[in-house]
Specification:
37% of the residues lie in helices and 17% in strands. By secondary structure, it is α/β, with parallel strands linked by helices.
Length: 257
Amino acid sequence: MNVSEIIKPENQVFCKTKLMTDATLSYCPGCGHGTAHNLTMEVIDEMGIVADTIGVAPVGCSVLAYDFMNIDMTQAAHGRAPAVATAISRLWPNKYVFTYQGDGDLAAIGTAETIHACNRGENIVVIFVNNGIYGMTGGQMAPTTLSGMPTSTSPYGRDVKTMGSPIKMTELVANLPGVYFATRHAVHTHKHARKAKKAIQKAFENTRLKKGVSFVEIVSNCNSGWKMTPLESNQWMVDNMFPYYPLGDIKVDGVLK
């Protein structure tokens, strides 16, 4: 088979779980959201919990997550996903309930809902995608934007003296007693994606055991918001995001690392 045959659509092989719909993803090329979606659906499929899982979609780049994930999902108002997930989990305590949120949704307008759901120890999974910017609405500064990082609302870079320091949400919630598992990963390489998948699986297993909140942060790129190519944004993420948001477990089985 020559190259011209390989690139024909009928000869392409897509590594997509059956729980991802055929809807065209609304994300920019190179964004980590699609991989994070697929990993989450792989875990749900492999655990055999499709019929017992309910997801809560946020407002932000992943506002249409319910179009891409072929499971029961509902929509929450901006930042209110943990509150909606709390209601679902309490009404159906034997369900696996998760939220899927970006940093603007979870760490800005939804700070209160996030903190209090974690403090109460609601039996839910929180999947938090952190790209350090408001990706959908024009690249504004987010609570997670790095010091000195330029955005559309901080064109000269984030000034810590006047704008505060970037918030490390996973470290913050890990100190709350209701959080049983808190970890941070990435999905820009196969190696990192495999680790992220294991973390997501552990989070859902914790829900089965009714251990409280499992908080999985995924540090991602935003090549359009950062004004870079996908490859450039991945390298920038490694060089700049990872030193401030180091990957790895922060709290496991209720114990801080």
